[in-house]
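Pasting as-is:
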Amino acid sequence: MTLPFPTGHLQVDLGAAPGPGAHVCAAAVALHPGDDRIAHSVPVRRDALGVEPATAVTHEHFRAGFVDLHVDLIKGGMETYGVSENAIFMPGRQDPQFSEWISFSGTSVTLEGEQRYLDSHLSYQRAILHAIEYLSKFGYSKEQAYLLLGAAPVEGRLSSVVDIPNSCSTVYIPTAIFDFDVRPSAEGPHQIDPGIGAPKAADPTSV
């Protein structure tokens, strides 16, 4: 592709493009490592102006793909089903599917013992803190446990808001994501190798 500029010069596109003919210049540039390239290279066609550098540029095949999207339109569906603001979603049926969980609960009481009226945010926070404390007994640092809970397919639920003034929340962790038995047992918690731990930012107050 060639684009004219106000100065009269030409800006030439040197990007690789598949074509039937070989570049007529010198040897090709260095290929990818042997385990990261196809068995043969496909040279690109020469630019229309013939001003590419005097080397051949290889182009590796890539497999094309497509997305088949099907939509059913329900006339007046939002009013019919009472959807006024947010969309309705159906969770996917793809693996992994988990059947065994270990759960932790929390109530709307602060660490200092202050009871908060139906504070579901606080009750879920307490459930997460209980899960972190539990996982730390297996050798995880509390930062690692926090990151694990943020990446794992956990399920959080508001379990009760009718036990006034308490709100109760629970967090469910699938046991199958661990390569050891994370359930409580008489043998005690299995000890993992925490490695280098979780990275931490510098404490700005210590500078």
